[in-house]
Design goal:
With 404 residues, this protein is α/β, with parallel strands linked by helices. The chain is 33% helix and 24% strand. The chain has helices at residues 18-30, 49-56, 75-81, 92-100, 106-113, 126-130, 132-143, 169-182, 215-226, 255-266, 308-315, 332-342, 384-399, and strands at residues 7-12, 34-39, 84-90, 118-122, 147-148, 152-155, 161-165, 190-195, 200-203, 206-208, 230-235, 247-251, 271-274, 281-283, 302-304, 321-328, 347-352, 364-365, 367-371, 376-378, 382-383. The chain binds ligand PMT.
Length: 404
Amino acid sequence: MRLQGKKIILGITGSIAAYKSAFLARLLIKEGAMVKVVMTPLAKEFITPVTMATLSQNTVLCDFFNHDNGDWNSHVELGLWADIMLVAPASANTLAKMAHGIADNLLLTTYLSVRCPVMVAPAMDMDMFSHPATQDNLQLLQKRNVQVIEPASGELASKLQGKGRMEEPEKIVDALVVFLGQQKKKINKHVLVTAGPTYEPIDPVRFIGNHSSGKMGYAIASELLKNGIKVSLVSGPVSLQLSHPLLETIPVNTAQEMFETSAQIFENCDGAIMCAAVADFTPVTSLDEKIKRKGELLHLQLKPTTDIAAEMGKRKRHNQVLVGFALETNNELTHAIQKLHKKNLDFIVLNSLAQPGAGFKHDTNKITIIDKEGKQYPFSLKSKTDVASDIVNYLIQYARYDQD
Ligand code: PMT
């Protein structure tokens, strides 16, 4: 009983492979799962709701409401109930609609509402599968954390040989067991992350900015989400995108906007990781019209911005954890320790531009975590994803998030 007590939404779409969903439902029940089936209108042409209701031991949902008594089939409730949504078979049409947020049947509205992980087992003709449109849609879904169970190769319903057969039910169940086994325990916390640079306007076309790409901050947000932690990501202008049911992203431009947004969110958070490269100075005035060249020196008057991390440090309650970064070029440890105390941080993550492969823009970073007692935890150069994992694991242990 490898899926004892797991709540699974089994989505079935219009594909010849829908007959395999009957075996799949039986196997899931045998493994101890609770299964609720949602079918697209076309799926009913391939396998009957009666078959699926009998095998899943639950009423099958196909329409937005019950035509006999008008009862509303709540996709939101269904979405909250499930531990995982599995769409098998997933046709090219449904994959495309999932990728583009189209919501014209109950399976799709359920997909858009679920807070749990989603897996798809594509099934279609080989040319449809290899078509760039389908491949792009699958890539987009994977980017949004949808797990794809690759189709097998072999004889297809069209009699052609190629890749497109839905994977066998036994293998889908195995993939589900492995995936759910890997899922970390959901940590019911809410963390604010700041990421990217800020842009301080000089005039309508110019600004003071910096080289932050947002990669480090987004990797941290992603790692928190993997642990089931809700994230509010306050992001300066970057070209990155992250999507997750537990994520809200608030784009900002200036240090002042980042401060105001972060302060409001921090009020109701369990912690914050301040990874943004916030401008320390901003022009005293930003002109409404483009400054013209006059061939003479131009003097810009700058004033200090609010130190967001320090301000959060003043407002921090005893049950909140505040993590800062220190981006240094020299006397790294001394400066980092000063910042840790001055900003009332719980710990600080030091990275230095003097280290090759560390800091701005790179896909890698090399950090040292320093705690309030001055203990140092140096890490080797690694990908920003792995660095983020080290920081989040340290935070979880420090704040005892896994023991609540
Ligand atoms: O975005 P990437 O290209 O991936 O690069 C990642 C990074 C190098 C930007 C990141 O790892 C990093 O070091 N972020 C902090 C950059 C920084 O501004 O460091 P600092 O030492 O100047 O600031 C110390 C701390 O105070 C930081 O947590 C910073 O977010 C915060 N701060 C600084 C100034 C300010 N006005 N408000 C702040 O909150």
